[in-house]
Amino acid sequence: MDANVKAGQNPEELFDVVDERDAVIGRAPRREVHAKNLLHRAVHVLVFDTHGRVYLQKRSMAKDSAPGAWCSSCSGHLDAGEDYETAVVRELREEIGVAITEPPPRWLRLRACAETGWEFVWIYRLDHEGPFQLDPAEIERGAWFTPAEVNAGVIERPSDYAESFRYLWPRVSLELPE
pTM (2 decimals)? Predict the structure, then answer.
């Protein structure tokens, strides 16, 4: 395997390139999209249990961005030609082994910016108790946290969290019960 290719990631994987309105204007390989900071699309899912805790994943050290950092329960790029709803169902199955037929409810949309890695992001919320089957190429491990624990962690140890998660968490945590 090429030393520049991380486990579970294909640098030639095609993504839709979008304009500032999130309309598709072309396609490019993953490597080019990231190297040129082209606007593209992603989904994030936050999974909550009945106690109000959120499940976070610790990203695999093999990831090409934010290796070993805590991040959303599940996240990923949209493949070329894929819509957000199809991608979220696929990512849940591939990353954490949750098989659903309908996408969970949309929660919040983020515009593409440096903090999101130039991704337009739909954040989804899913109520689920687990257990989860983690893809080891994507995820080192996962754990449940109270929102207060995540709030404190993001403030006290920001480098422990992926930049995109540090950006999205304050926006969704405002809507969580105290």
Answer: 0.91
